[in-house]
Amino acid sequence: MRDYLLGTLEADRRTQLEERIVCEPAVYEELLLVEEDLIDQYLSDGLSKAERHQFETHFLITAERQKNLRFGKLLQRYLHSHPVLVPAAAVRNTEKHAPATRFFLFPLGTFSKGPATAMAAAVVVAFMGIALVCWNSLKRPGEPSNVVPVQLMPGATRSVGIATQRVHVPPAGFDVQLELQVTNTSFHKYRSELFRENESLKRADELKVETKHDQHIVPFTIDGDMLSPGDYQVKLSGVLDSGQDELIDNYAFRVIE
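-> structure tokens emitted (257 positions)
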């Protein structure tokens, strides 16, 4: 999972892991924990030079991870500028009973070691609660918190004999990010539209091309709730300076249980 998040996992193993992320909620939860560990190690300079480069150029490609990193920096600055002084005797008495945590500068047993220390600990906890509320308020309306990535190759339709990409129905509350592979990167903006049986389900404008695993993709995020078993098509167009569309390619995938 660490190699996957840093973009260094082999293609075949990456595909297998992405399938498990979609099908097994426990695997997705474990992935989130690994994301937290990577952010902690980045902030504490615990990554190697190569890992730090991958973290900055690959791991931070999603807005959600960028937000988590900013929150980690905010919390780190606050804790470093507001140290909580704990009596040495209290530390000795509690350290063998309460394991250290990476988010607090005091052991968990501190809360029962006197009113002054408990008050200092409560201030830090209160700040963290306020910060979390403010952080959640920064989330833009409709911005997905749980996203399942699905890579789609152009021309994958039954008519040309290329195997159709199979996608499992995402868990409730998850969105799906269709990563449309492109070779034509000359457009400043792209437009994409999702169809099922010639019925348009969603259209997105102002899309931008991104680089992932040495490939150019146009990410197109859709609500996972709109996907049910069946065949789907995606049309990708480049937007000319005149505002007119120029068809680039079509993509197809099949949703299964």
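The two ends are 24 Å apart (CA to CA).
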